[in-house]
Amino acid sequence: MHDCLFCKIVSGEIEPQIVLETEQVLAFKDIHPAAATHVLVIPKRHIAGMEDVVTGDAMLLGELLLVAKAAAARTGIAKTGYRLVINTGENAGQSVFHLHVHVLGGRKMAWPPG
Ligand code: AMP
Ligand code: ZN
Fold it and tell me: Which of 47, 101, 114 is nearest to 72 (CA)?
């Protein structure tokens, strides 16, 4: 997608700090970390958000979660725990409209989230 920040990361126009990568999915460090460890996991194909996901994307969604789990292991937060977040739409504060899973860890987190 022409004007999408994360599509520019996928194309290499913007260089992220890559944590890991599969054929369909990319995991990289968040530029403004909200925790000691903060990784974003995105599909390489542009999907604006959860509201644009369809039944045929089930395998891709599964892979996003598996890569999120692998990213947690790779960054050393698997044992102490981590939180996976997908902000969707205005009330959730979604700011980049390319589907992404936040992997947050390295500190104790509160519930419910703010
Ligand atoms: P959300 O608010 O859920 O849409 O999350 C968007 C996330 O993208 C935020 O945590 C931002 O810090 C992060 N972000 C924005 N620009 C970049 C970038 N160039 N590289 C890495 N992460 C970014
Ligand atoms: Zn995109």
Answer: 101
Give the number of residues written for the chain. 114
Q: Is 100 among the residues known to form the active site?
A: yes
Residue whose Cα lies nearest atom 17 of ligand 1: it is 31
- Whole-prediction pTM: 0.98
Residue 1 CA to residue 10 CA, distance in Å, equals: 10
Domain positions in the chain? 5-105
**Looking at domain 5-105, does it have CATH number 3.40.50.970?**
no
pLDDT digits (tens, 9 = 90+) for 84-107: 999 999 999 999 999 999 999 999
**How much of the chain is helix, strand and coil, in % rounded to 5?**
25, 20, 50
Which of 38, 98, 100, 102 does the annotation list as catalytic?
Answer: 100
